[in-house]
Amino acid sequence: MATTVLNIHPSHRPLQIWIASLLVVFLIGLISMSQVLLNGLQVTDLSDQVPWGLWITLDLSAIALGAGAFTLSAAVYIFRIKRLEVLARPAVFVGFLGYTSAMLALAMDIGRPDRFWHPLVYWNVHSVLWEITWCVVLYSSVLVMEVMAVVGDSRLGERWPRLRSIGHFMHRLTPVLAVAGMGLSLLHQSSLGATYSVLSGRAIWFKPSLPVMFIVSAVAGGMSLTLLATQIVSLLRRQQIVPPAVCAQVTRTVGFITLGYLYIKMWDWAATSYYTNAPATADILTRLHATTPYTSTFWGVEVLLGGLAPAIVLLTPNLCKRRGLTMLALALVVIGVIINRWNITLSGLIAPPDWSPGVLGNIVAVSYFPSLIEIGVALGIVAYALLGFTLGVRYLAIYPSKDNCVD
User: Fold this and answer.
1) Domains along the chain?
2) How far is CA 3 from CA 7, 23, 195, 351, in A?
3) CB under 8 Å to 296, separation ≥6 — which residues?
4) What is the arithmetic mean of pLDDT over 320-339?
5) Which of 164-173, 271-280, 341-350, 379-388 has the highest mean pLDDT?
């Protein structure tokens, strides 16, 4: 009877195992979230010295990797590059999952999620975080409206005609939403970098280049994740979703953007850590080198594995024609963005400034390692994003296929 109701087929079993595994991890995340809501941030390893940790890294990474939504939407609906239209919907859906994942992480991290509405009512126009809050709310609303067009075109829209009519209306607004989304996302990505760069008391953060690097790395990472997810779906379906010429164009674009990001990053490093050798920055870098793997993750993962290596692969004609190698290069770009957000967040916090109240001058670095509750929440949020993408690919009209609709 169960087989008849669920329409189980042997070829569907791996998918069912995958979904069941994600549901288990998501349940672990829900349990961990309940502990945070019931007991507060004391169940974490966060402190006054290190108030941002794993969750903020997850938040920044999810937002950065969702940047493909505004990039590819702008390319299709603003600049009229119609050959990229096959990637527009998956980019929007990935962006939607990225931003909702970020909001889940923020709801846990602020300690009082019941007060999330305060920045919308009590305006602090001198705060970068206030501007970020408004951008998150507005851009998330734009993504919801864009996703409604995808939902309306699925079998769900056939079952509920009202939903389909709403989706068609949103589809007509797509060019306007693309313009609004591009502006809001650019503001948001740059403001995230500005959150760090305006803090003069943290020498390793205080520089004007961070907003620019946040935008450029987000564009590269967002496009990489969208194309990588599409290639994985294409392999699983044994179907060519993206034409080879379009795939080559996107990979070349990602390669050039990655090289541009590395160029800015190297000059930023030279200006702040090599030529000037400012005492405060040099002191922090010495502490980080002595107590953390910051140096190896910066040069080994961010620069070499997450930047230079994938750029070479994606820009070399003979190499980028190999699908497996191209997918690996795209994955490395994504990993490089995640490690970058981790390094930026933790590097400026675990090495305390000398003037910090309550911090003794002989403390080299503040210790931080995520608690099990923090890890459980993070795993639950990642499981939510993967589960959402899996179900979206299966039941929504994200990719052109006969099997996109509900059975």
Assistant:
1) 13-395 (1.20.1630.10)
2) 6, 20, 53, 58
3) none
4) 92
5) 379-388
CA distances from residue 53 to 107, 189, 297, 323, 335 in whole angstroms, order as listed: 14, 19, 17, 35, 17
Cβ-Cβ contacts under 8 Å for 51 (sequence gap 6 or more): 349
CA 392 to each of CA 154, 388, 404: distance values in angstroms, whole numbers, following the listed order: 10, 6, 9
Say which residue the tokens 């609906």 belong to: 77
Nearest by Cα to 99 from 151, 53, 64: 64
- Residues in contact with 17: Cβ distance below 8 Å, sequence separation at least 6, in sequence order: none
Q: Could you tell me what percent of the chain has a pLDDT over 70?
A: 93
For the segment 361-382, the average pLDDT, to the nearest whole number, is 88
Say how far residue 269 (Cα) sits from the centre of its chain.
24
For residue 340, which of 299, 385, 394, 285 has the smallest C-alpha distance?
Answer: 299
225 dihedral zone (left: phi>0; alpha: psi -120 to 50; beta)? alpha
The residue assigned the tokens 């409604």 is: 148
The mean of the pLDDT values for the chain is: 87
Report whether pLDDT(405) > 70: no
381, 101 in Cβ contact below 8 A?
yes
Other beta carbons within 10 angstroms of residue 129's beta carbon come to: 12
Spatial CA neighbour of 374 closest among 25, 29, 20: 29
